[in-house]
Amino acid sequence: xxxxxxxxxxxxxxxxxxxLLSFPMAHRPALAAGPPPQPNxxxxxxxxxxxxxxxxxxxxxxxxxxxxxxxLAYLSNGAQVRTAYLSLTRGDGGxxxxxxxxxxxxxxxxxxxxxxxxxxxxxxxxxxxxxxFGFSKNPEETLRIWGKEAVLADVVAVIRKFRxxxxxxxxxxxxxxxxxxxxxxxxxxxxxxxxxxxxxFHPEQLTDGVTAWQARRIFWNRSSFxxxxxxxxxxxxxxDVDAYNPLLGESYGEMAADSRSMHKSQGFGVxxxxxxxxxxxxxxxxADAKETAAKKPLPGIFAGIDIDLKRFxxxxxLKALVDQASTKLDVRAPYxxxxxxxxxxxxxxxxxxxxxxxxxxxxxxxxVAGCAGLFFDATAAxxxxxxxxxxxxxxxxxxxxxxxxxxxxVRFPFAPARTVAAALExxxxxxxxxxxxxxxxSVKLPxxxxxxIPYWLETPPEAGLYHADPTLIGMPEQPSAVEVxxxxxxxxxxxxxxxxxxxxxxxxxxxxxxRPLEVTPAVSVSPSTNVLIFPGAAPQTLAVRLTAGAPxxxxxxxxxxxxxxxxxxxxxxxxxGAVGSETTLGFRVHPAAGAGRxxxxxxxxxxxxxxxxxxxxxRIEHPHIPIQTYLVDADxxxxxIDLVLRGMxxxxxxxxxxxxxxxxxxxxxxxxxxxDEALAAGAAALRRFDAVVVGVRAFNTSxxxxxxxxxLMAYVEGGGTLVVQYNTNNRIxxxxxxxxxWPFEIGGKRVTDETxxxxxxxxxxxxxxxxxxIGPRDFEGWIQERGLYFADKIDPRYQTPLAMNDPGEPPQxxxxxxxxxxxxxxxxxxxxxxxxxxxxxxxxxxxxANLLAGGHRPGATR
Length: 862
Ligand SMILES: [Zn+2]
Known about the structure:
The N and C termini lie far apart (82 Å). It contains 22 helices and 42 strands. It is α/β, with parallel strands linked by helices and 862 residues long. Zinc ion (ZN) binds next to loops.
């Protein structure tokens, strides 16, 4: 069988769960680490029809959640064209509603949420190296921070590999009132539409079968909820993308809602739509100049493009066979189709286009396996293994139909293929059961095999761009390094399927679960914190956990402190036992004495037989995505801070994934987490706290908190200090309760430049003086942004001691609201303390300490 070189690359690196997406799997669970779900007879019927379709659409936008899932569901399952979403970023700059992961870890979750969404709507998924660096107000800033040339080259690379007939952008390439990433995504898609066809543009991409590619046309997709009544749609192509699919038992609107509801870290669960969904498409450019000049809109997005086999002359026999397969399907005995599918496979040579030939070859293979109910699996005895060690692997093949299937070869990784030549036992009749074929092997992992880490996290990124191996750019996730390939023969045709080696277990609640085999370092190093803060000269304690990735790792552990800093003990011997065993070492870290009080980085190194280990394994576990693993440097930032604290007893009402309480404890605050029962007890129960803090979005997520406004205000009136961090008020999370004693609104105002100058509007204001004297240096070293969801339409009884703005914008005064109310103090702040405090930013600690002090002077009684 002829594969294009690119198809080989693609088959090697794309996880099978993705390759098998040609089957709609709307009714299947989204846990994808195991073998792909078996298609049912209705899905086989759809797959047979799809064999005759050769159109393709690439949808382009900026973030996880930008994509139009109704359109993707329709294109993939209704029109049955090959459909993909290219999200320029992985959404790593957003907020997280389901946990404490931020930055690259959040990007990993969002990546998997998109893959879970695609398993429902049936589209494929791609990314560029661009980072979601936080909100951007215009495309010029976005393209400067990303590096326009690099991201444009990535979009072109995806177009050249996927070869879409039609490209669709979610946003207008014209500057508009939206996220700068959004406009930039459309500008790049439009530029890439032309550049991908130019062989002189990044010619290094044109190897391994990849050629320049001219898509036929590019549209801007406008949805009805985007349109204003004044918008003119008379020149747009219109398309109703909702329809009920009786084979699937649902409409594309319903499927779209299920897909979109996978964006759980963003709280984007939506209701299932059963009404018509009209989409509008404005032509941005066409390969045919007559189309762009035409007055009337095109009759459809595929106008003039053959999306069936007619596109290729000489495919008449193939087309007839595909039609025959569709009509001959017996839903009670799909295996009877296998002889026709084998003939189709042999006839695929009639397709002159190597890309489509390879794509259809994969579809036929999956249909053969689906019709025969073939099951392939490769499981390991443990979920992790270190390089240089051996893993016991069981390869399983099972035929669940009367079809005669011969297993020719099984290839375990890092070993030659093993000839099997075994006829798989057949149940003899449809619906019967047979015994599985099993083959065991001890797979020796090479000593130089890199540990499991997503390819874009292997090296530290730039501010706007991840680094990546050029051959992997565009891929949604790390290809498995440990796959077992099964080659089987049926009706004279040979097919190969791959299965990543996985660990399989039974969870008493979730049932059967799979996770990919992780390649982990022989010793992983995890400090108890990534930041140590030194408010004074006193030493801090640090615990370091060592975990064995290989059996019997022993050696010496050595903390490497910056000049002037002292760590006791200077070294510590360790001896670990079986894989997974742990030991915890304790250290005291003494800050450097004297002037300057410079901070630094403490490096943690475990030495085993001359090899150094200084990374920790991080795992991300959420029920809606497969378990994710990556590695982080085992470094601890040492940060001296001149910090005075007043009022040590803090009651804290946490928001989702809130890391501020731990950050406050780090500098000595006595923090009590408050639940619903504390609120139910009213103001009296809060009085024992010097200050009560409300975490980000806590009002959005806690009904009890919204009902507790009166109690919170009574607490303030009686002399307490209440500090409310940002909450949102929008379509997704409407705010239905007041936050403070007097009105203010929360809009979308923010300052995204983390270096934006901050001015003090009120000299001597307690927030800026008591007990810590705040100056410009306290606004140095902030990360990602100054703040977000600032207050707006502010009642004049509030004081606003800070003003700041992004470049070129007027000053904003809503980042910090302060009011004396009764005997106490109320504070609302949109400043990004939830990022700055866990990151150990000194000025953020000093300012937050002032907010908690509520204006109380040192020594004053409260
Ligand atoms: Zn977006």
